[in-house]
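pasting for the record
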Amino acid sequence: MTVASSTLEEMKPESMLLHPIDTGAAPGQQEQLCIFGTGDLGRSLGQRLLQSGYRVVYGSRRPHSCGPLPQGAQVMSHAAAAQSASLIFICVHREHYKFLETIAPLLKGKVLVDLSNNLKKGTYPEANATYLQRLVPGAAVVKGLNTLSAWALQNGLLAGKQVYLCGNSARAKQAVTETATKLGLTVLDRGSLSAARELEDFPLQLFPEWRLPLHVAIGLTAFFFFYLLIRDVIYAYVEQRKDISFRIMVSLANKVFPIVSLIMLSLCYLPGVIAAFLQLYRGTKYRDFPDWLDRWMLCRKQMGLVALGFSFLHVIYTFIIPIRYAVRYKLISRVVDEMKNNETTPFYFDNTEAWGTDLFYVLGILGFFLYVLLGLTSLPSVGGSLSWKEFSFIQSKLGHLTLSICTAHGYVYGWNKFLRSATYKWYTPPGYMLCLVVPSVVLVLKVLLLLPCVDHTLTRIRQGWERTQPREEMGEIKATNL
């Protein structure tokens, strides 16, 4: 490629024509892009650009000893590389931006895409992209693609991934958007370069979509742990003078895990039920949900995965119960006592108890199997291979079936304990009774939504029907009548 013409150099960044609109590339010739930086990010980005049909040239301070680069790419000095393309990706740390000031005349009229991030918030008084624009005032700086990692670029996990852009030049952002779209990315414009600080803080957020589910899970775990600690361990010590604190590690934890898992699973489907009743109440689907409900619905996947994790813990803890010292000691001591007293404890087969126990285990196994199936379909590699109808069937129909089976698992566990006075220690209900409240409410509300009269109305609303006409249309009708 040739150096941009003097006419293009004299144009302001806001009004310049950018490649691929007019870059001097001959018809049918591959577009050439430049990358400053030959680190992991630069090499991974170059590889993806080459696979997408671009020609790539690297700018390096040591072009003859910069390490292995993707096959088909060229490498040269920063000054030479800057003259070979109109779109340049800056894949170096902010600390090394000074060299750009020395070649600022060559960057006039170019589009510079800043991909840099900082190690922590507030490291510098201004955003990296703002600093870059100040160093090279003649270029059009665009902040973007900084949420991509070298690992994601290398493994091709870009399809549908959302990235953000911001910049003062609409044409510069358009050029970057076209390139990002060819990589399979979905671009969201965040406005002017003043939003660069916000974009640079995005990668520093620690599991932003997981915060609410993790906070809920931690809160539920802490509540039920101390609640059961008081009911089981402290109650036994105060009322019966028994020290059973050894049960805290396994027995108590194995009660908390299934309780939290079941509540978290029900919280995955509760916002959908609430949203359905809101649409029925409003008679339209064109009104926004409250912010808290939107946020809740966006983290349902994470809530489900947290619930699956707690169910895994419950299964593992259940498997180790027979090998615990306390259980083995209890069995051996019973046998020794019978041998010493030369007597046997009478044992009668209870058919009802046998049915209840087998049903309890079967429901637990089926519920866990469906749990795992839901978790697998949440993986992008699996969910992406399913059609919308298949994914909806698994996540909705099988999801509610999983909730029903797991709830029945809890009811069977305490079917013969609800009316016993000994069950309510210090007049408090056991933990499994409390955990059945939320899933039971969700299932009852879901059954109401499945009633033909309700389901028919809800389906019509979701297809665009409105119970009342919008106010604008009503005003037009009144005006026409007048």
